[in-house]
Amino acid sequence: MKVTNCHLCGSSELEKVLDLGFHPLADFFLKESQLQEAERRYPLSVLLCRNCGHGMNSFVVPAEVRYQENDYSYDSGNSKISVGHFTDMAKEVSERAGVQKGELVVDIGSNIGTLLGAFKDLGASIQGVDPAPNIVALAEKNGIPTINDFFNDSSAKMILKKGRAKAITITNAFNHISPLDEFMESVVSVLDKSGSFVIELPYFLEVIRKKHFDVVYLEHVSYVAVKPLVPFFKKFGLSITHLEENDYMSGSIRIFVGYGEESPLVKKQIALEQESGLYDVDTWKKFAASVRDCKIHLLKELVDARSGGGKVVAIGAAAKGNTLLNYCGIDTTLIDFATDASPLKIGKYTPGSHLPIRSDDAISEEVTHALILAWNIADFLKSKISPKFPHLKFITPHVVE
């Protein structure tokens, strides 16, 4: 569906600020049998609302296609870094939202239940909601009660049978949702008047700050910053009561929303966004040029490695890595295979580029270069691989020497 109006304010004053061409779904990892099938591609470009400043993709792929047509491949418990992050998040949300033992915590897009498991360990009553059938099956095996559906009026009514939620969390999924007005109506129907709705996701400002253009992919319907959210939440009688940036995913923001007073941090964060040029079209023109430079630099480095007789692999088959691979036109001509630690991805192929995904054990002495696709955990991956292969040269996207 082509986007003609802002998801937050409804304005039709939208300007294209970044065009990455046509892409397959970034989380649509392929089985070998699917390689012979036609692969759908959709336009991938970012629109900026000139009225409120919200960022969004120019095209929305139906949610049923994104999360239910193919086995979903992201596992929130696959990384020690993720598990540690969600354990700490559960503690902070419990303290800041005042979650007492036995009170209900709901996680939207709960995946296999990593975050909810941490809340359960703290004594909370828990309920997950996730649309991906294969992921819900794993969550249930983990002892996490999970409704296999999108968060909507129907699933909200099921949750209300348990009572109202003292905390509703949504990590790396608020930016996947459309329409947002209907979603927020369901949130309000479930949230206790003294409760907190907690959003964590990649911060739109980091796209500009760190050249993170590959966090742009089709599953990310929106790109979220603070300024556009203030009037949006006000429509539902809510305000941002606290916010903080963190290093998760190499630059995320955690936003607490509730019925209390607006935090003074909000004005400071909006000022930072404006000073950084996030809502300035000229800033985006310069950014688009830097994205092209990144592509040229990366392709040259890979071609030089190949021409010199090197063998190149990709490390960490992250969804954002598929934006990078497809935007740059990288396939098995330049890279032999990708590696990942997730059983949900090993044995499959990257969308578009069709790199076979193997375990990290597939790296051998003959591999000379490694392109780090999961750059948010680059230091961890280097420390894991370097001791065994000290000769390996790592290539990290976004870094132009």
Polypeptide structure, described:
A hairpin with a 5-residue loop joins strand 2 and strand 3 (55-57). The strands form 3 sheets. The protein has a 7-stranded mixed β-sheet, with helices on both faces. It has a 5-stranded parallel β-sheet with strand order 14-13-12-15-16, with helices on both faces. The chain has helices at residues 63-68, 80-97, 114-121, 133-141, 153-160, 180-190, 204-210, 226-234, 265-275, 281-307, 319-328, 378-385, and strands at 14-23, 42-49, 55-57, 104-108, 125-130, 146-148, 165-171, 191-202, 222-223, 239-246, 252-258, 312-315, 337-339, 357-358, 369-372, 393-395. The longest helix has 27 residues, at 281-307. The chain starts with 13 loop residues before the first strand and ends in a 6-residue tail after the last strand. The chain folds into 2 domains: 80-273, 3-Layer(aba) Sandwich (Rossmann fold), CATH 3.40.50; 282-395, NAD(P)-binding Rossmann-like Domain (Rossmann fold, 3-Layer(aba) Sandwich), CATH 3.40.50.720. Helix 5 packs parallel to helix 6. It contains 12 helices and 16 strands. The protein is an alpha/beta fold and 401 residues long. It is globular.
